[in-house]
Every structure is written in structure tokens, then in C-alpha cells.
Amino acid sequence: MSAGATRPPTVIRGGRVLDPSRGFDETADVLIEDGRIAAIDKPGLIQAEAADVIDAAGKIVAPGLIDMHVHLREPGYEYKETIASGCMSAVVGGVTSVACMANTNPVNDSGAVTSFIRERAATAGLANVFPIGAVSLGLQGEKLAEFGEMFEAGIVAVSDDGFSIMNSHLMRCALEYAKLFAIPVIVHEEDNCLCANGVVNEGVTAIQLGLPGMPAAGESAMVARDIELARATRGRLHIAHLSVAESLEMVRRAKDEGLNVTAEVSPHHLMLDERAVIGYNTNAKMKPPLRTAKDVAALREGLADGTIDTIATDHAPHHRDEKTVQFDAAAFGIVGLETLLPLCLELVQRGELKLERMIEALTVAPARNLNIDRGTLAIGAVADVVVFDPRKSWTLRATELASKSHNTPFDGWDLQGKVTHTLVGGRQVWEDES
Amino acid sequence: MAEGERQRRHLLGLNGVSAADLIVLLDTAEALAEVSRREVKKLPTLRGKTVINLFMENSTRTRISFEIAAKRLSADSINVSAAGSSISKGETLADTARNLAAMSPDAIVIRHPSAGAARLLADIVDCSIINAGDGWHEHPTQALLDILTIRQYKREIAGLTVTIVGDILHSRVARSNVFGLLTLGARVRVSGPPTLLPPEFAALGVEIEYDLAAAVADSDVVMMLRIQRERQGENFFPSLDEYAHYYCLTEEILAEAKPDVIILHPGPMNRGIEISSGVADGPYSVMMNQVANGVAMRMAVLYQLIVPGADGIRGSKLAHPPKKSLPRLDAGGAA
After folding, report:
1. Digit-coded pLDDT (tens) for B153-204
2. Which CA distances in Å does B83 have to B58, B64, B117, B120?
3. B165 and B206 together in one domain
4. Does residue B88 lie within any of the structural domains?
């Protein structure tokens, strides 16, 4: 933004300002000037001429949420989602930054595709988009993609998400080579042989429904291998959508040992277990699959105690036609950006997660995982801000989602907590008028 | 039909079907069995009704059995198979079903390789759906005819020990029998190599016994399942020879069972692999009775689902529940 085109300042007045990056939690006013946080002070002390005012009384003001695991589908699958529609879905959900996975068509395995994504995101002008490059060319799991070229174009991490890297040598090289750029290798852990035709968690529900299962060991065996490789290489490993208790335990030990290993969990793995697929509900079909109640309990605990750093949605839009088919033929994945905050708040309301920890896992933690300068309301920081009413009740209607796709298992749920304002770089990009 | 007169009734599986409803179906079949022994094998009961047999997987016994059952009740029955249908032109199952439903059938009988296919149809079309086998999930009419056969020999299902042997993991016949037999009070044992019999089956309420002789011991009924030859390529067992060595029902093993044991097999059987010819053709085998009962059982199912206000069926599980939001996990999440 050129100096001549500066916007008037914005003051967010009277909210509970919660910024885990600095351990800040007070009722305060926030002044935003030139797209950055200019001041935070006791209510009423900030005087700003001709400022836009957001009344945040009774609301929470936090750094804009960061979702480090999103599928924006463009280029290639614009019938599911576009960068613009995905970014709209993000800001409606209070998410100001998304990191988007490389499984587009063409795959984001080159600087050209990375640049295309960033240009489209800039045109949309909604959320910040941080592209993630492919580990392997075409996500084929064979040949290393040009990390350097993609890094120069703006990637913040590499991942073959959607696929597991079965070639251990390739995985080792990825961890080593990524060190050049200080970017994490994000892994989707699923042993292809153990999970071959699986569509749900291997367990009692799979037995009842007669569906092929994906065993817990299909994930945990890969987590074990990759932690060993992280130890051997001292590389930077981030485990995507962790779903079973056994994996969690291994991450806990790796962290105790001081390895550079981090992990994320999705809201759906915290809120649903395998029984959600009963009735062949294709909107409860995703990878990794919904697991057992025991795993859900372990994941909640692991999130609360910090073993799991981050909450990320794995927002995976699919067209209605791809879900209105036999269960085994249905696409894997669900949308998540617009349900992220209220689902997390439900854990807070149940007393299973502290609000500060929840915000941390949605802001400063993913910022650290990706090494991006976001997720904070520190003076001088880019003013990505979310304001939400933690008590507002509403009912989710899948068809009303801003995302182009409506594949959510939470349709009809009564939720509590709604985003009222989203600001990106100091500019208000969303205001809830309901 | 008067509006709102009834909810469509479906038979998607035996899981959750009440004992009372099972007994109504079995009793109806018993009453209808006599038709097939008449000179003129036909009742006017379903005259003017249309039944579509939609078979997306190979089948001889089940398809013919449904077709004969419909004809003996005077329904018009039409067969559709995957080859030569619009499915082979890439039409989705949902669209095929909608198109068939637009021609106002009273019931669609569906056989499909995907678990849940029958349920998908029930969710989107307005006619009765009868599951004739969906993937590994259920094959309810097969289990009903098995139970009917058992009941004819043993009078009461409750208290019997029924042992099911073979590829339990991939068997819809096993699942439907487990659900139905347990509901009617039988004790059910399952046996097969551990690769084809995961311990999670115990959660359904069955006993697991990997040793065939021990599984057969004191059984009133032994049901042998067909072993699919493809499974050896998938490493579930090393070879058919070795499978037969441990899991073929021979006269020697059968000596462990009760003296009045009966042997069932849903067919088609692999002689010398899961069952010896001596047993298959021997005095304890009731396999041909199963086939005969198949027609009566399917007549009963068609009658009870299609005829408005047909007597007896009260169970809510045969009426398809409307779609609802997913329930939240119990408070505290994850007890």
C-alpha cells in the first residue's frame, strides 16, 4: 500500500484482547494504523481522529486465525473451490492466513504454480495465502521437486499431503534438503500397503458396516519411521492431522528428546469418532479416518498439554456429486474453515481446553510451525485480527457455507461462538451481519 | 395409495431388526412355502406390482430366486444387470436408481459390490429397497433363509450353538447371520484364520475360535462359507491347499459336532476346499433345502414390504429412519 493511499485508522474498542504470543489477556482497545498494530491500551485511552470503530464489548479480540492445512483446489479443481471462494470461507471463519496444499492440477511442484497461487490470492484480496510446495514431482513419491525454485516463489513448507511418502530414502532427503531453506516437511502418515483399500478406521464400526479399514498402525508405523528420520537428519518434521493415540505418544517422546518435531490435529478428529460413519455417511469419510473414542480422548489431552501444537482444518472441499455415491466410491475429506472456531470453543465450554491454549493453537503455534511473521498482536505486527462473540448461538446449515462445497458432517449442529469481524492487514474483510 | 398411509419399508440388513419382525418374516415364508409345491405355483397377491432386480454383481442363485419369488406372487419382475445397462456407460448408482424409481416400481432388489449401496438407494428413492447383498456388509435374505432352514430342523433358534466357518471378514452372509441369529437367541461361534477373522468381531457378541475342531465341537449347526480364491493372492492365507488343511469341513471333524448337526453352505461351494464332498453330499447337509427355502423367504420379504398394511411387521428398523444431524460425543467426549 503506497503512503498516499493510507486508510483511516481503526480502533477495536472494549474487547477482551487475547494474544497468547505475548501472554496478553486484558480488556483493551486496539489501534490499527497503516495495516499494523499501532497501540493497545486500556479502554478509552486511545484517541484517534476519524478512526473506524469496531465495538468489541463482550467479544474476544485475537490475532487472526492461521489454518496451516487447507486445500484451495485451484488450479485444476475449481468446481470444488477456488482460491477466492476458499479465502472467503476462511475469513468468514475468522481465518486470516491459510497454507494451501500442493495437490492441485497441475501440482504445485514448481515456482510457476506457486506464483500463480499467490497472484490469485492477491487478486482475491481476502486472506493471506501461503503456498506449500510438493515434496516430490507430481506427488509421485519418486523424485524430489525443486524446493529452491518454489521457495524463491514463496512456499513456506513442503508436503505431499494426500499421499504418504513410502520411499524412506526420498523422505530422508526431503528432511535434509529442506534444511537449506529452514522449511518444515509436512507429512501425511498412511502406510499404503496397510491402508490399501481402507475407507474407515479399522475397528468395530468397520466390522459392522462391512467396510475395509485403515488400521491405527497404518499411521503410527509411519510416524515412528519419520521420527527416526528426524532424529537421524535433525530435520524439521511436522506431522499433519494426527489421529491415533499411538502416534501422539511417539510425538510426546520425540519432543521430550528435543527433536524438531511438531504436530497438528483437526477439529473433526477432536469432535467425532468412527461411529459418525454409521449409515454410510460420506461426509464422515476422510483421511485419516475418524478413529475411536479412546483416540479422541487422547487427542484432546495431547492438544491441551501442548504435545499437539496446532489445530488445522484439513479443509477439503468436494462437489456434492463426489459424495452422493456409494461409500467406498466417495471422495475423502470435509470442509472445515467455517466450523473451526465454534468447534474448538465447544472444547473450551466443556472445560477440556483452556481458551488461551485454544487461541495459541490457532495463531502463534501455526505461525511458529511455518516460521511466518503472523499470529501476534505485538506492536508493529501486521494487523491480522479476528473479533468473535464466544457466546453467540447459531445453527450450521451446510448450504449456507461460503465455501463452494458443502461437505460437512456438522450440518444441523447448534454451535456457540461466531466471528463478527475479520481484518487482514488492517482492512476489514468480513463483518457478520446476522 | 393414500398419501401418508405408510413409510416405505426396506430390508437393508438384519442388524437392528427385532426378533418379532424376524419371526413374522419366517412365519410368512413358512406359510408361502406351500405355493411352490402346488401344481399351479402362483398366488395373485402382488398382481399389478412391479419389482426390479438390479444386479451389479454376478449372481445366479439369488437373482433367480428373487425372480421366481416375484413371479409366484404374480408381480411383474424385471432384471437389470451391470453389463449392458447404463452403469456401463458411466451413470452413477444414484442416477440409475432415480431413473428406475421414476418408472414407479414397488420394490428394487439390489445386489452391489459396495457396502451401503442398498442404504444409498433407500435414502434417495421412494420405493421399497431390498438388499440382495452389498459388499461385505449384509445379505439379509440369505441369512433369513438360512435361519428358516435351521428352524425347520431345530424348531427353536434360541439356545442353539451355530458355528460359522471361513472368510468371516469379507462375508456379508456371516454378518447377516450373526445379527439375525443373535437376535433370536442363538449362541454364535465364528472360526477361520486370524487374517480373515479380526478380534473386533467379538464386539458383535460372537465367540471366536480359530481351531476348526474346537469350533465345531458340540455345534447344532455348522455353516461353511465359500472361500474366494482371490484371497490367497492377497496373502490372507498362503495357498488353498493350506487353507483346506486347516479349515475344510471333513467327516472326521464333523464327528466333533452334535449327532444331529446340520450343515449349511450358501453356495456356490468349492468342493475339497472349505467342504469335503463327503460332507456336502452326506446326510447332514441341508444345502438343497436352503435353496428351496430361498424362494419362500423372498416371497415373504416381497409380500411384507410391498403390501400395504401387511400383517405383523411393526419394527421401526424396517422403516427407514429419516436423516438426522450427527450426535455429539457423550459429554466428556470420549468415555
Report:
1. 999 999 999 999 999 999 999 999 999 999 999 999 999 999 999 999 999 9
2. 10, 17, 18, 21
3. yes
4. yes
When CB atoms are compared, the residue of B115, B116, B334 closest to A293 is B334
CATH number of the domain that B130 lies in?
3.40.50.1370
Residues B52 and B102 in one domain: yes
Chain B interface, best mutation among A200, A243, A280, A394, by max B CB count within 10 A: A280
Residue B192 lies in a domain: yes
| Buried/exposed code over B126-135 (b: 16+ C-beta within 10 A; e: otherwise) | ebbbbbbbbb
Residue B325, in any domain of the structure? no
The mean per-residue pLDDT over the stretch A14-28 comes to 98
Tell me the catalytic residues of A.
Answer: 314
Orientation of helix A216-233 relative to helix A245-256, angle to 10°: 20
User: How many domains does chain B contain in total?
Assistant: 2
The yes or no reply on domain A64-370 and CATH 3.20.20.140 is: yes
DSSP A34-51: TTEEEEEESTT----TT-
Instruction: Check whether residue B118 and residue B188 sit in a common domain.
Output: no
> For residue range A238-285, what is the model confidence (pLDDT) as tens digits?
999 999 999 999 999 999 999 999 999 999 999 999 999 999 999 999
Q: Are residues B221 and B276 in the same domain?
A: yes
Q: Is B52 helix (H, G, I), strand (E, B) or coil?
A: strand
User: Between chains, do B117 and A272 touch, taking CB under 8 Å as contact?
Assistant: no
Q: Report the complex ipTM.
A: 0.90
Do residue B334 and residue A294 have CB atoms under 8 angstroms apart?
A: yes
Size of interface A-B (CB pairs under 8 A): 97
pLDDT digit string, tens, across residues B295-308: 999 999 999 999 87
- A411 with B325: Cβ contact below 8 A: yes
Judge: A327–B92 Cβ closer than 8 Å, yes or no.
no
B137 and A210 within 8 Å at the Cβ level: the answer is: yes
Separation between Cα atoms, residue B140 and residue B137, nearest integer Å: 10
Mean pLDDT of A126-152: 98
Domain spans, chain A = 3-61+381-392+412-431, 64-370
Selecting from B93, B172, B175 the residue whose C-beta is nearest the C-beta of A326 gives B93
Same-domain check for residues B114 and B210: no
As a CATH number, domain A3-61+381-392+412-431 is 2.30.40.10
Indicate the SS3 state at residue A144: strand
Query: pLDDT confidence of A2, banded at 50, 70, 90?
Result: very low
Report yes or no on B120 lying in a domain.
yes
Chain A residue with Cα closest to B124: A324
Residues of B in contact with A329 (CB under 8 A): 114
Distances (CA, A) of B333 to A270, A293, A346, A413, B325: 9, 7, 11, 16, 17
Question: By residue range, what is the domain housing residue B149?
Answer: 140-290
